[in-house]
Design a protein that fits this description.
The chain has about 130 residues and is an all-alpha fold. About 85% of the residues lie in helices and about 0% in strands. It has one domain. The chain has 4 helices and no strands. It is elongated, with a radius of gyration of 16 Å. The chain binds protoporphyrin IX containing FE (2 copies). The site of one protoporphyrin IX containing FE (HEM) has 12 residues, from α2 and α4. One protoporphyrin IX containing FE binds next to α2 and α4.
Length: about 130
């Protein structure tokens, strides 16, 4: 398995544990759950689920289609964009100060760019001959 794929999977598990910890904190302290719920949801959905799909997809889909990944460079760049974007979004939603607004917008852009890069890289990889 490629090193970068292992890192996608590792980070997915890190976000799963972080999302679960925040979920557990919200159960213990429902008064503050409004502050954490969006970070919790995205750590689980964009962190655990999407990051797992990025990693498994990059490992399996080229094999299924009998090709190499279209762009290993995009696969690496997307990893950093997705992680920086998610951590920034989770921090921005949790901090909820004036400054978090710009942190949120920049991080959301990074996350969105990662989604688009994944879409392009996978679609180009599985393109029928
Ligand atoms: C240890 C595991 C988990 C715990 C303890 C937990 C706990 C919670 C709590 C307390 C809330 C707030 C409910 C409320 O008052 O509105 C919540 C919301 C949410 N959780 Fe979790 N959760 C866990 C795992 C997950 C996982 C694995 C996912 C997704 C894959 C997930 C997705 C969500 C989403 C999307 C919301 C927001 C729902 C909404 O928009 O109201 N959670 N969770
Ligand atoms: C580019 C990536 C993404 C961005 C920028 C983004 C942004 C947002 C924003 C701004 C909200 C509203 C938060 C609020 O109420 O203040 C939201 C809510 C939500 N998003 Fe995303 N999102 C992204 C990806 C995803 C993905 C991939 C999923 C699911 C697989 C998802 C599931 C949800 C859910 C369930 C909610 C409601 C959670 C809550 O109760 O706060 N999002 N998202």
């Amino acid at each position: 398995m490629e090193k970068i794929v292992v890192w996608y999977l590792r980070m997915s598990i890190v976000y799963f544990v972080a999302g679960a910890v925040i979920g557990f904190i919200m159960i213990l302290d429902p008064e503050t759950s409004g502050r954490y719920v969006t970070a919790h949801a995205h750590l689980n959905l964009l962190g655990f689920m999407s990051m797992m799909i990025y990693g498994v997809g990059y490992h399996i889909l080229p094999k299924f289609s009998g090709r190499n990944i279209y762009s290993p460079g995009i696969m690496h760049a997307q990893f950093w964009l997705a992680n920086a974007g998610l951590i920034g979004m989770a921090a921005g939603w949790t901090l909820q100060t004036g400054r978090a607004e710009s942190l949120l917008i920049i991080s959301a852009l990074l996350s969105f760019a990662a989604v688009v890069l994944f879409a392009v890289n996978i679609l180009k990889t599985i393109k029928a001959v």
